[in-house]
Amino acid sequence: MPTYVLNNAGFHFRCWGDHLKKPFEDVNPFKKVPAVQDGDFRILESCAALRYIASKYDSAGTWYPADLKVRCKVDEYLDWQHLNTRTHGLGYFVNMTLVPMKTGTEPDMTVVQKHEEELGRVEDLFASYFLNDKPFIAGDTVTIADLQAACEFEQPQAAGYKLKTATKEYLERVRKAVGHGLYDELHAAPKDLVKAMKK
Amino acid sequence: MPTYVLNNAGFHFRCWGDHLKKPFEDVNPFKKVPAVQDGDFRILESCAALRYIASKYDSAGTWYPADLKVRCKVDEYLDWQHLNTRTHGLGYFVNMTLVPMKTGTEPDMTVVQKHEEELGRVEDLFASYFLNDKPFIAGDTVTIADLQAACEFEQPQAAGYKLKTATKEYLERVRKAVGHGLYDELHAAPKDLVKAMKK
Fold this sequence. Notes:
Two copies of one chain form a homodimer.
Chain A: H1 4-7, H2 24-27, E1 36-38, E2 41-43, H3 46-57, H4 68-80, H5 85-96, H6 98-103, H7 109-131, H8 144-158, H9 165-178, H10 180-186, H11 188-198
Helix pairs in contact in A: 4-8, 5-7, 5-8, 9-10
């Protein structure tokens, strides 16, 4: 399981479902990952955490640009993804991997196919509206919006979803911008999980 | 219908479903409301629009405070609400009003009751985590997070959902902070719709 998502809050997952009960419920009453800890300050939503970390630690303002219009385009993606890339990317991944592991049954392909169809629609809107021929969501440089998008596309891909060429090329640009080593480390957990399932 | 949500982008709804087709599809390819226009700059997500408008026009920084920790708590609610207050508040309202109006049938109470149950859970988390004995989400003063929360609680209430006392008291604090006249004007649309249905 992706222990890295909560290393920061001092909690290690042992198996799926740990996030739904105590002691994690005391860390995050929403029973969701991630939970981020900065000193005595805790943040329970990933996008809020990305904004906070970038604002506090990236003095150059690269990851969350201060220019209002550029920042707004970063925010627009981070708001949109909740019911789009996140819902269907995570939905595909969870229903292909974690749910069958937990229940000991085959994936419910009716549910998986619904997420697969929606993810196709999401990829098209992502390419046409958010990228719109730019290398990254906010323009020529990578931002926290791209970090979020990469997570959401890498998870279903790890579980067998066939990303469109434009999305794969975009992920390769994000990987290059972040650095291949760090990017691969960050995205190893879903791939490792799928490998473990196949053994 | 709530024409005010798009007055700003020069588009007036005539009936439910207008947002799903042209010419609105050209305004917002996501086929969702609102769409906000500031000069030649268009914003298609409500939370991104609230952040942008507050950052650009509220020089006092009241609505979206610059202090990183306070701002993070505003962002945390704005991120959380998508799959919680928004999903179930809007879900209750739409399934009690717009869907029956469109289809000419009675509300699907199985769907409505699911949103009703979830909205009860949302109200409890909202009170215990986001308010946690404070008057507003970010502390002692009203912010854009409270504007968003008020919309999401007022809609199901207009359609018959019985809010808990703590939520009603919170909405009254937001109403007082915004100003009774403006608040009532902003929240008139869902109430007017329900009145029109009863005629």
